[in-house]
Structures are given as structure tokens and as C-alpha cells.
Amino acid sequence: MIEKEYKYLITEDEFLSLKQKINPRKFVVQENYYFDTENLEYFKHNMTVRIRKKEDLQLQIKNKEKVGSYIESLEQHFDLPLKEIPNKINLHTLGAQVKYLDLPPIIGLVGKLKTERYIAHYKDIKICLDKNFYYDNVDFELELEFQDRKTVADFLKLFNFNHPTNKVGKYERFLSKYKEEE
Asked: Which residues of the chain have a pLDDT value below 70?
């Protein structure tokens, strides 16, 4: 599945204001457990490997590419029959479906990021308002998953929202704090 999204880092006040304006229909809490090599080789190849915990556990592998002002990701999802988050995972056990270049298949747990997500829709846009918790940090983000860029422009105009896009995703922001903690 290919996902196209604009990301915007916002303040808490902007988060609260947008939450009121968009009237979200859904709220979810998700925990992302990030995996990589000790040298962060997957990250260096624009890949994110995580296990997302909502009700069940799902392994997600994202190959990201920055396209102009938005991010396009090829995502692969694998349901996991696990009850707990492992300290290491072996991507070879998932078979040939995993496209990870010639990177080491056994990777370790780097850490956890928790997101409180409010979801709404505008035309073909999935609007996600996220409050993210990692280490001692809290940040706020607006994500717009879209098919048609014109619809995004319409949404931004309607809500008088004129922020520059943020090309630094959650995993990269998480890693900046991770490196500070070492």
C-alpha cells in the first residue's frame, strides 16, 4: 500500500483549536515499538520498522521517500500472533515479502512512542491529530493522508492553516531524543 501524507508539527494550542474545528469521529491510542540495528541501518535507508500495538500487534515496515513537500511511503503490514513485544525480531521469518535490501534481518528494540490520535475526514483526506509521547517529550502533529493534493489545498484554505510542512516524521524525532538519552 502506498501512503501519501503531509505532516505539520503544531503547538498544543493549535492542536486543541483544530480538534474543536474538525470534530473528530474516532479516538485511538497506539503504541509504536521501533526496531533497528545498533547502527540504525534501516533508518539510514529511509525505512521504519515498528510493531504497532492497538488491540493486536502488527509489524509495519515503511519505505519512505520525500516527494516535494509531502512524504510518500510504501507500507507492508504483517499481523503477529504474539502477546508481548519481543526484544529482537528476525525479518527472515516473514518470508520473501519483506523488501529490506541487504540489511541485517535480525534487529533489536530501540524504544517506544505512544500516540493519542484523533481521526476525522474531509473529502478524500484522513485527518489525524496526534499527541505523541516519547522519553520526556510531548509533541503535537497534524497528518493529512491524501489522494489528491488539490483537496489538501482546499482543506488548508478552509481552516486558514498555513504552516510549512514537516518532513521529519515521528521516528526521526524519536531518534533525536533517543540519541540524547544514550
From this structure: 94-101, 182
